[in-house]
Each structure stands twice: as structure tokens, then as C-alpha cells.
Write a structure and sequence with these properties.
Oligomer: single chain
Order of helices and strands: EHEHEHEHEHEHEHEHHHHHHHHH
Shape: globular
Radius of gyration: 20 Å
Structural class: alpha/beta
């Protein structure tokens, strides 16, 4: 069994800490917020994971140095907007070759870098991997089965992490396609916002299916241009994560979208959800990447207008429906 430190005490970090603890690993959890450390120590339960007790012998701490230096494996689980600054804080303590598994999802707006690229830039001595897939914390924390994929630069690292996490309720596959895993996990949050908007407007299952399908098409167009593999995008971290995030009420992105479809502003929706809505932070970056790589991403562009330009959600839907006529798959030839 391994000594593992979870860097970040949000719902996903806590769910994974419980998963790893139950497998027999020694687990520490770090939080940057002193009040949260004290609350978790006292209550032994995360407020957003009610009914999921934190074991009495699982250490909760604000001591980043101790967490990093004592760990054989680091799981980085802070919200994407804090990934770079957290990695920077960790730098003095991370050993050469120390494995860091990033489990957050997002793209940095200023640089258009994925999270693993940010971590590698700040921590060049580390061995950085990613874990992603259809995995809401609310279900993983309660031991409901799911399946994820771990991406790493080399097979040995991926298989090591696979063995660390894999158990009867958490099946893990391996992949060398870090870029595809991260783009699938990040861009699906933007599409989930749009799916939530459609729900908030009172649209039905047909609309949801269309958004998921065409959302997958534009995610794929961009990801392939950026070097991802098609197989990854149609796997767990692509279509798998997209389906669950667009369909589940556990999805904070979908919930925020529903509120915006009902007429609330982006700021009002984020305040009501009370957790970081990653899709809001990735939306501008996704639109900028579409421009950079010359890729058509109409859903992404319209959701940006709703988020940041004050466009009515119903108008955005009309814009999408009345776009120029197209061919679903231009690469498929017509008859002889």
C-alpha cells in the first residue's frame, strides 16, 4: 500500500481520498483554507458530501510541505483556476520524478494551456499524469461503481497509478493520450452549460441529445487539431464524461446552465450553485482555441455570448438552429 496525499479538499478530492483509504492506502488531505481544515477535522464530513463520513484516522492538514514530502503519490485536486498557483507553492517540496496525478479539468484562459502543461511548467521535476472520466464525486464518495482512464507519458507510470486506484467500484484503464483526456474533460463542461441552458428553457430530450451529439462533434474537431486521438474522444474521458455531465443533477455546470436558462445571470447562477463552475472558466479559452486552430465551434461560441455578452439564452438557441445548412459528416463521399 502507498502513502498518498490529496492536494485539495473539495468534493472530488475528498471522494478520492475515501476511495483510496478504503483500499488500504495511507491518505492525507491538504486544504489551503484554515477554516475548512478545522471544519473537516471537527465534523468529519464534507458539507457537499452529506452522509459520507471521513475516517477518524485520515489526516486533514494545512501543512503543504509535510503533505508533499511524505507522499509516494500526489493527487492534485484543486479547482482548475488554482492549479498553477498551487503547483508553484508545491515546487520547493516536490522531489525529482515524484508522480503527480491531476484530477481537475480545465484550460487556462490567459495561456490556453491544459492543466498538465501548467503543472509541468511549474514543476519540471515531476512526473505528471491525469485521471478523468464519468465520475461525479457524490457517487464515487458513496462507492457507486464507475470507470475512468489514467493518462501518462510512459506505460509504467500509467500502470502504477492504475494499480493504486483500481478496485471493485472504480475500474481504471490506461492511455498515452494525455492531451485527448484533458481536452475531453475540459471542453465537455462548456457543452454541459449549454445542455443546462436548454433544460432551463424547458426544452426536451431531443434537444439534449442533439446538443450532446453536436457538442461532441466540435470537441472532436478541436481536439484532433491539437494532437488528440479520436479513440480517446470516443472513450471514457470524452463521450463518457460528456454524457454524465450533460445529464446529471450532480453536474454543477448543468445546474448553472439551468439557472441561466431560467433567466439568471452567470454571476447569479454561480453564486447559487455555491461551487466552482469549471465550464465558465473554460468557455473563453475554448473559444480562443477554436479561433487559434481555425475550428468551427458554434455551441461554444454561443454559450460565451450568453455567459459574457448578455445574450438571452433563447436567442443563442435560435442562432444555432438557423445557422447555414450543413452536411453532418463532410468526409463521407456521396454515391459513385
Amino acid at each position: 500500500m502507498a502513502k498518498i496525499s490529496i492536494i485539495g479538499s473539495g468534493t472530488w478530492g475528498m471522494a478520492l481520498s475515501l476511495l483510496l483509504y478504503k483500499k488500504g492506502h495511507t491518505v492525507k488531505v491538504w486544504s489551503a483554507i484554515p477554516d475548512e481544515v478545522e471544519m473537516l477535522k471537527r465534523e468529519r464530513e464534507h458539507k457537499n458530501l452529506p452522509g459520507v463520513p471521513i475516517p477518524a484516522d485520515m489526516e486533514i492538514t494545512g501543512d503543504l510541505e509535510a503533505c508533499v514530502k511524505s507522499a509516494e503519490l500526489l493527487v492534485l485536486s484543486v479547482p482548475s483556476v488554482f492549479t498553477r498557483q498551487t503547483a508553484r507553492k508545491m515546487k520547493p517540496y516536490v522531489a525529482e520524478g515524484q508522480i503527480i496525478v491531476n484530477v481537475a479539468k480545465g484550460i487556462e484562459e490567459e495561456t490556453l494551456m491544459t492543466l498538465s502543461e501548467q503543472i509541468e511548467e511549474e514543476l519540471p521535476q515531476a512526473n505528471v499524469a491525469v485521471l478523468s472520466g464519468p465520475s461525479h464525486a457524490e457517487e464515487v464518495g458513496r462507492g457507486i461503481p464507475t470507470t475512468c482512464v489514467v493518462g501518462a507519458r510512459d506505460k509504467e507510470t500509467a500502470e502504477y497509478i492504475q494499480n493504486i486506484f483500481m478496485c471493485s467500484v472504480f475500474r481504471v484503464y490506461t492511455s498515452p493520450d494525455i492531451m485527448g483526456i484533458e481536452l475531453g474533460g475540459s471542453l465537455k463542461n462548456v457543452i454541459a452549460l449549454a445542455a443546462g441552458v436548454a433544460d432551463g428553457l424547458g426544452y426536451g430530450d431531443n434537444t439534449k441529445a442533439a446538443l450532446i451529439t453536436r457538442g461532441m462533434a466540435e470537441i472532436t474537431r478541436l481536439a484532433l487539431k491539437m494532437g488528440a486521438r479520436m479513440e480517446t474522444l470516443y472513450g471514457l474521458s470524452g463521450v463518457g464524461d460528456l454524457i454524465v455531465t450533460c445529464a446529471s443533477m450532480h453536474s454543477r455546470n448543468r445546474r448553472a446552465g439551468i439557472l441561466m436558462g431560467q433567466g439568471k445571470t452567470m454571476e447569479e447562477a454561480m453564486k447559487e450553485v455555491q461551487m466552482v463552475v469549471e465550464g465558465v472558466y473554460s468557455a473563453k479559452a475554448a473559444a480562443a482555441l477554436a479561433d487559434k486552430y481555425g475550428v468551427e465551434m458554434p455551441i461554444t461560441k454561443e454559450i460565451n455570448k450568453v455567459l459574457f455578452d448578455g445574450m438571452k439564452a433563447s436567442e443563442a438557441v435560435e442562432n444555432l438552429m438557423l445557422r447555414d445548412k450543413g452536411i453532418e459528416h463532410p468526409n463521407i463521399p456521396w454515391g459513385e
